[in-house]
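The data are quoted verbatim here:
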Amino acid sequence: MLKTFKIGGIHPAENKLSAKKAIEVLPLPKTVTIMVAQHIGAPSKVIVSRGDQVKVGQVVAQSAGFVSTNIHASVSGKVAKIDTLIDSSGYKKEAIVITVEGDEWLETIDRSPDLISNINLEPKAIVDKILQAGIVGLGGATFPTHVKLSPPPGMKAEVLLINGVECEPYLTADHRLMLERSDEMMVGIQILMKALQVTKAVIGIENNKPDAIAKLSELSKKYHGIEICPLKVQYPQGGEKQLIKAVTGREVPSGALPIAVGAVVNNVGTALAVYEAVMKNKPLFERIVTVTGKSVKNPSNFLVRIGTPVSQLIEAAGGLPDDTAKVISGGPMMGKAIPSIEIAVTKGTSGILLIPETEGHRKAMQNCIRCGRCVTACPMGLEPFLLMTLAEKRLWERSEKESVMDCIECGSCSYSCPANRPLLDYIRLGKMTVGGIIRNRKS
């Protein structure tokens, strides 16, 4: 019997329209917009000026704290301006605009396709290299990877979990990566294992990717300590706590991090980026992005330079369909609508989803019918109907007591509600407000 997590979960239509499309390299844009805040934590500090010439892989913004990381130029050319520009959230944030003048990489980057598998660096040197290369979680959360590899005093990792679940409908970038870049990914996993000083790693993959499961199961015979764990298809299995529960049976306590149960979770894309950083001296300046939708002419998976405008990805996939109602950054469950297709790809851009008119508008909200479906669907064992009511009535102290901060914002509650209630919207409001109250209390 296939493993999965035990509480809640749903099974939306998968719509993996681009699963058979090999990764294509997207041509360079004319300009890139490098957002300075591309990760959880402190925004990086800009170290270039207008008019500076930069090369691919050059640091343009430095880490501004422990929970922060470097930002690199994804193209070679001239810094046109440093300005505040709109990002995917719709807010203006600091950005570096570079005019593309060729494709000149730093000489230190190894561009050969040869696989390097001999890991000579010690754990601390590996973590330092990952920090310098600007590696973050590429599953969407963008948590700096060097922080995950530095457990707090008194805590020790016992197992490394690699997230190959890709449970969001439509997205296939991780699936293609596992098929096409599998050896580099496996070496990246071994590097992460050495950094954490663990002897066991498990790659969790949902059973709707049988080709990836078969390929990696065969390949894992060459890589000591790496196991493949096929999983039942169940959203949101890609959540850290759900994946840990499914694979190890361990339950992360409320308010705690995975390291509390001896686990560290990294995405398959992060493992590949770690390989490139440690073995090839290549910083994180490009990533694989799925561009898809039911009306898209050519749903695709592209290797894209960070800072490329979303409009160029859409054009490469056949153009913007006439019936497009929304453009989502990410998947349909946890992604967010973007304000313009001219915003830039960031390290956290896993997909661009074009939603047609027939599916792009919410139905009218009705009164709660007390059916309990949101409670049944919640993978965290919360009561979404109650958390929405508490947010509506601004009862923040009660919201905290009802564990609003445990919500992973997966959207399972809103998806399952027959009354079309915007449960997640109100719960996000509750989380944001209660989180602010907690921070003020601690300070």
